[in-house]
Structures are given as structure tokens and as C-alpha cells.
Design brief:
two-stranded antiparallel sheet; 14 helices; about 5% strand
Length: about 240
């Protein structure tokens, strides 16, 4: 197994070429928000609104979702957490709606439970990624059709863009890159429904690389490592090892 310390050269080059504002806060795209609002209906936390105020075709970015985080933690009703949930789901899936109807039904089955679950997860994500993960995946996922590939996006956005936020996005493409760089079997992407041990190991590794890359002049966030890992993992299906 390769050493898990020392960041990859390609990561260092990527960080040098991408200022944090560009790589993280401005990372977004224009989305058919009207389609999302049609799918979600009038559930709590809706409608989705683009950063330009549009409910039709609008911009959605990491920076825009960060602005929803504080209220998602403070609102005891959980409605704001549901709002962050819908937005993070839209950001994560874009124009692909293969599992969206099922995810909407999972929330609609008990909106109060779903809202409180997400509120508590948003609060835990700030200091305790393990507890936040296990709240949403105590065994099976707490919300059907919403595994760690997607709910870790919600845990990440709950940090509001804090460079030291410990709960990161860990999806199949991120895991594929970490596995390719370390050859550590804990990152071997055999399934998108992975355990908490994989999540914590991935977060720890990305935080470690970010720390090594940081300097007094430039604090590198672990989410910048995640963004690099995601872009490097485009061929994750082809690189997926045999079970």
C-alpha cells in the first residue's frame, strides 16, 4: 500500500491554479429550478429559488447554499433544514431526476420527522461528523433513496463554507480518487452505500492533505481537496475494481 501521508503532486498543482473563491464559493451552474419545484411540490422548505431570484432557470452554487446553513441549524421546526436539503439535492443531481421522486416521497411520508432529523444532522455536522453520519445512516439510510453519496452533501453544506468544517462530501468519484492515490481498501468503491468508517477515513485523509498544503499565506480547506478528488474521479466506473 502506498503511504497515506504526503499529498499528490496533481492536487498541489490544482490548488495552486484554483483560488478558494473560484474553486468553492463560485462553483455552481444554471439549473431548471422550475422542474425541481414541480417535482417537490409544496413540501416544507420549498420553493427552490435561484441566486438571481428565479424560480425557473437560475444559478445554484456552493456559495449560495452556504448562506442557508445558519438558519438550517437555528430553526427548531426543521423547515430551514429541509430547505437546505432540497437545495443540496438539486445541486448534487442537477438535471438528473432518476431517484428524485422516491426521495421526495420519503420526506413526504413524514415531513415532521424528516425535518427534525435533518435539523439535528445539520447541528451535529459542525462538530461531530461521525454522529451526523450515523444519524442519517444508523444501519439502513434513515431516508429511503438517500444514501451517503447524497446526504454527505447536506452535511457539508451545513458548515456554511467554514474552511475548517469537518463534514465533507464523500461520493463515489471522491472515493475512486482516494483509492487510486493510496491503494487503501477502505476507499475501494464497491458500493455507493458505504459505512461510517469509510466516511471518517476519507474526511481524515482530505483534512490531512489540506493541512500539509496550507501555509501562513494560504489556508487550504479540505473541501478543496474534495473538489479536486471529484474532478479526478470522472472515470470511477471504469476504474472500479472487481468485487
Amino acid at each position: 500500500m502506498k503511504a497515506m501521508t504526503n499529498y499528490p503532486d496533481s492536487l498541489a498543482a490544482w490548488v495552486r491554479e484554483h483560488p478558494r473563491q473560484e474553486a468553492i464559493h463560485s462553483h455552481g451552474f444554471r439549473l431548471n429550478i422550475g422542474k425541481w419545484n414541480t417535482l417537490v411540490g409544496h413540501l416544507p422548505g420549498t420553493p427552490l429559488v435561484g441566486e438571481d431570484g428565479s424560480e425557473n432557470i437560475g444559478l445554484i452554487s456552493r456559495g449560495g447554499l452556504f448562506r442557508l446553513a445558519e438558519e438550517a441549524q437555528k430553526d427548531d421546526s426543521g423547515t430551514a433544514a429541509l430547505g437546505l436539503f432540497w437545495n443540496s439535492l438539486a445541486w448534487g443531481t442537477g438535471s438528473s431526476h432518476r431517484n428524485t421522486p422516491g426521495r421526495v416521497r420519503a420526506v413526504a411520508a413524514d415531513t415532521t420527522r424528516s425535518a427534525h432529523l435533518l435539523r439535528d444532522a445539520a447541528r451535529l455536522a459542525v462538530n461531530d461528523p461521525r454522529a451526523a453520519f450515523l444519524l442519517l445512516k444508523p444501519g439502513r439510510t434513515a431516508l429511503k433513496y438517500w444514501g451517503p453519496n447524497f446526504f454527505t452533501k447536506f452535511l457539508y453544506f451545513a458548515g456554511g463554507g467554514d474552511v475548517d468544517h469537518p463534514s465533507l462530501i464523500v461520493d463515489a468519484r471522491v472515493l475512486a480518487t482516494l483509492y487510486a492515490e493510496t491503494e487503501d481498501r477502505i476507499f475501494r468503491p464497491l458500493s455507493t452505500s458505504y459505512p461510517v468508517s469509510t466516511y471518517l477515513a476519507a474526511c481524515e485523509l482530505m483534512q490531512g492533505w489540506a493541512g500539509e498544503l496550507s501555509s501562513p499565506e494560504r489556508s487550504v480547506g479540505a473541501d478543496e481537496v474534495e473538489r479536486w478528488a471529484f474532478s479526478e474521479g470522472r472515470g470511477w466506473r471504469r476504474r472500479q475494481p472487481n468485487a
